[in-house]
């Protein structure tokens, strides 16, 4: 099995000591390891030699089956798009839907939940519990969540459910109330930076700040091309009206980067500390109302960033809009994004 994240060791032991019921909700900020903790708990529950609150041994037959993702008493529910991203085999629904051409879903579909419910009702294959891991649990829609309620209330046999979420508030209250909650806090900056350095990341402090203190998010951003050098260049390039760096990133990441730049520009404008960028490179002199208005437009753009925009034109327009807000004075009227609706940038 992969090495566990160092900061989940204590929460893992806590969960194994204190888990009282059959359903556990692991929640916390995005990018701190809820899924990894859920899998570590599942591994411990399915380990065939573990005693007490110890983690999985990693050597028994059950642990080897889990490491190869073939354990017959474990089912992992992920949105189809996330299955592909994490390298898990997509379910039959994704392969067979609509002639095999349906776009992978970003939600946990009701068919997946029903299959998991059927799985919990089957006889255990190796004598231990039947374990279902669901991540991110907030990706269940109302129908999927409602289908799960009876199993959460009255699980069959030794069934255990692990729900991992970065937005537990989006779960139905009836789902939350049926689970024992375990909050996973972000690791200390020192621990997170040491871990990122161990993953080969240069300037881990810069990357960690860029990701809001969330180390897995920082590593994911690095994989998308957001390294520390590019992050340091970004404020200067935006002020110069240059969009080449941002255009090389996925559009949602580019929009998010501009939002974070506006956040920090607003912070320094009111004599507060920036959160995402080193203080010495945050643009200064922009007027608070204009930066706030640009941030609102960026938020609106973020809600549509998954749409089939012409990405290069969209990024160029967003950079110019942000630049006008960050520059001192009033360099031209702010007539929306490049003076035209963002919808006209769709491909």
Overall description:
This protein is α/β, with parallel strands linked by helices. It folds into 2 domains: 6-183, 3-Layer(aba) Sandwich (Rossmann fold); 224-345. It has helices at residues 9-18, 34-46, 61-67, 80-86, 92-96, 110-120, 142-153, 173-176, 189-198, 204-210, 215-223, 228-239, 244-247, 251-269, 288-302, 311-326; strands at residues 23-27, 74-77, 131-134, 160-165, 180-183. The protein has a 5-stranded parallel sheet with strand order 2-3-4-1-5, sandwiched between helices. Strand 3 (131-134), helix 7 (142-153) and strand 4 (160-165) form a beta-alpha-beta unit. Helix 1 crosses helix 2 and helix 10 (204-210) packs across helix 11 (215-223). The radius of gyration is 23 Å and the shape is elongated. The two termini are 43 Å apart. 41% of the residues are buried.
- Give me the Rg, rounded: 23 Å
Number of strands: 5
The mean pLDDT is 89
- Termini separation comes to 43 Å
Number of helices: 16
Instruction: Determine the fraction of residues in helical runs and give it as a percent range.
Output: 40-55%
Count of structural domains:
2
| Shape category | elongated
Strand percentage, roughly? Answer: 5-15%
Largest sheet: 5 strands, parallel
- Major sheet: order of its strands? 2-3-4-1-5
Give the low-confidence spans: 90-99, 332-347
CATH superfamily of the largest domain: P-loop containing nucleotide triphosphate hydrolases
The assigned structural class equals: alpha/beta
- What sequence of helices (H) and strands (E) makes up the elements? HEHHEHHHEHEHEHHHHHHHH
CATH architecture of the largest domain: 3-Layer(aba) Sandwich
Classify the fold: give the CATH topology of the largest domain: Rossmann fold
